[in-house]
Amino acid sequence: MIPTTWFRRLVFFLFVMEVGGGVLWATAKLAPDQAHANLLQTVGSLVFLFSFYAGMPLIARYLAPHPCTDPARQARLASLLQRYGQSCPVFLYDHPDKEANTVGLWPSQSRIYITTGLFDRMSDEGLIGILGHENTHARERHILVGFVYACIFALGSNASASRAFFVVGFLLFLGLRRYMEYRADAGGALLAGQASMSTGLRELAILYPSAAWHRWLTVIMAYPTLPMRLRALETKRPALL
């Protein structure tokens, strides 16, 4: 999620809960019986999911409404983009968190959001690697893949009330997210160069240090640890666990 103020995050959370709850209530009321209610609620959930994912560029503008206007930072960003080459539009905004995110279902609508907290703490070489990583997410349609999986999961949940299905489906989703992070790192190395991608990951590992035992928790995490990502980039052998 794009870093923002606590108030905007709260408003966004309440909006999503209200709209999602409204969709489920409306579809249940429109159904002639319980069997059709489950089906209509599933369809309503899919429509809601599509609206959420497709509307992320607009949501991102709400969560990060104020671009960074510092001339030195903007000049540095322009220089980095010139060095990198063809990229999705990059939005630099003021926030102390150290984050970079890509939004948009389709490559044509994808946007990259970078906080000044991350921008100021990384070298030019590392930032070029980050640009390669985020652009790979857009080029390989990773957000679209996540949306399709969410739709399949919603349909499967409607067909099966088993708790085991939910647990297995959720763990598979986490595994898919980790795999896409490895893919983005590998793609970033192709787009920005192996040295830039490695530098970016090493600098992130300094900003976000992790203990050796953290890797044993990756099965319940959406992202592999940075040491795991570095090792996968260097050996070309990603480890999902």
From TrEMBL:
MF terms (GO), sorted A to Z: metal ion binding; metalloendopeptidase activity
Lyase in keyword set: no
Transmembrane annotation, as ranges: 6-27, 39-60, 147-174
Pfam families, per database record: Peptidase_M48
GO biological process, one term: proteolysis
Subcellular location, record wording: Cell membrane
Residue stretches making up the Peptidase M48 domain: 91-235
Keywords, in A-Z order: Cell membrane, Hydrolase, Membrane, Metal-binding, Metalloprotease, Protease, Transmembrane, Transmembrane helix, Zinc
PANTHER family named in the record: PROTEASE HTPX
Homology family: Belongs to the peptidase M48 family.
Protein name per UniProt: Peptidase M48
